Amino acid sequence: MVKKPSENLHAEASYAPSKLEMRDYYLWTWTYWKRHGISGPSGFPIIGNALEMLDSQNPPYLQLKEWTKEYGKVYGITEGLSKTLVISDPELVQEVFVKQYDNFFGRKLNPIQGDPNKDKRIHLFAAQGHRWKRLRTISSPTFSNNSLRKLKTTVEDCALELLRHIEQRTAGGKSIDLLTFYQEFTLDVIGRIAMGQTDSQMFKNPMLKYVRAVFGEPRKAIFLSGAVVPWTGPVLRKVLFSLPQLFKNPAVHIIRQTQEAVEARIAQRKADEKAGIELGEPQDFIDLFLDAKADDVEIENNEDFTKTGVKVNRQLTVDEIVGQCFVFLLAGFDTTALSLSYSSFLLATHPEIQKKLQEEVDRECPDPEISFDQLSKLKYLECVVKETLRLYPLGALANSRRCMRATKIGKYEIEEGIDVMCDTWTLHSDKSIWGEDAEEFKPER
Ligand code: HEM
């Protein structure tokens, strides 16, 4: 029988809990879901399900799907002291991600993410509440059609370079690993639109090894320690970022490069201004972010997203621009390379769909030069991409929210601080939504 430990064990900084109380506190957390009548995999005392959620051999998004089969569309897991409700019921998902957005205005953060309220280099992925809203409001216009139109030439140039490499390396019927080609491609695009890179670096990009390393094997010991003993998270983060050589932290190298690129652009703009040279069209995200202002947008729309009395800076700081470019690099690299790989795989294994798609491209884009407006006419291509992402929902673990204010979703009471995660893989293959052929690749659906 687990004794109810004293509340606020963590809030009281001056209070030193006894060993017995600590043990009770861990056991109390570990049994949280059971005590609330919600089933789930028990894992191990103290660490809960943390090890299973760090297993790269059986990735967590597939593990969640396995657990859903066993425990149903709503179940709970724990990772050290963090408690997560996993859902794949569409109505609950709608409740958390859309309707009750005001109660869930942050993502589930990893234990070494840093403080979302203090981190100067905060980015869209980790920001919460009013900080997220501000970043989102200021940077959203960079994703408008008008802005993306300006980046089209760069993307097209990288695509042509990719085709050149594929043709060269497949000469004589040689086979290639397309994923590595797509990784070179996506890094080239992002390098040129978010990192200040001026020309193609495909197959000679020194950044690739660092970016791949970020997506490598998770540092289990560090994440485990941060999950089980939360105060070690910020300490480990500090150590990882201050001694990158010792701990081989690739993120430090990427951030440094991004910082240099942003500072160089600011210096160049100042020099141009001094020399009377007018600011030209924005060339990339750095320019777009430097120009981004939230002049016409209402940032304050409800009290959670407003810090009353705090001056809202309507322009991004240099640190914030570095943060956004950094997260674009990480968020856009693997997701996009894998999406391209999966769609190539699905098209190769479904020649009739490939033929239909080819016919659409030939019909809508008869000339070698493709305009931005022609792209929007490629409806079947859009269906192919969406159906690929339904079957292979990438970045699925990002589909999570932290409860910031106690509430109820359906019949479930959710306390503040609880994370809610969507089991996207189950949702995307649910036969009650997609029909009996849910496992088939059918862009027409
Ligand atoms: C096929 C490619 C991609 C996939 C599958 C993907 C997937 C996702 C997912 C699942 C989320 C979480 C959504 C949520 O919490 O509601 C997300 C958020 C995000 N993605 Fe992507 N992504 C892709 C491409 C990109 C690219 C190319 C960029 C940047 C250039 C990017 C930047 C971001 C950012 C900044 C967020 C956080 C947005 C916010 O909180 O306001 N993603 N992405």
UniProtKB/TrEMBL annotation:
Its cofactor is heme. Pfam families: p450 (PF00067). Keywords: Heme, Iron, Metal-binding, Monooxygenase, Oxidoreductase. Coiled coil: none annotated. One of its GO terms (molecular function) is steroid hydroxylase activity. It comes from the Eukaryota. InterPro entries: Cyt_P450, Cyt_P450_E_grp-I, Cyt_P450_sf, Cytochrome_P450_3A. The keyword Heme applies. The keyword Disulfide bond does not apply. Belongs to the cytochrome P450 family. This is Cytochrome P450. The lineage of its organism: Eukaryota, Metazoa, Ecdysozoa, Nematoda, Chromadorea.
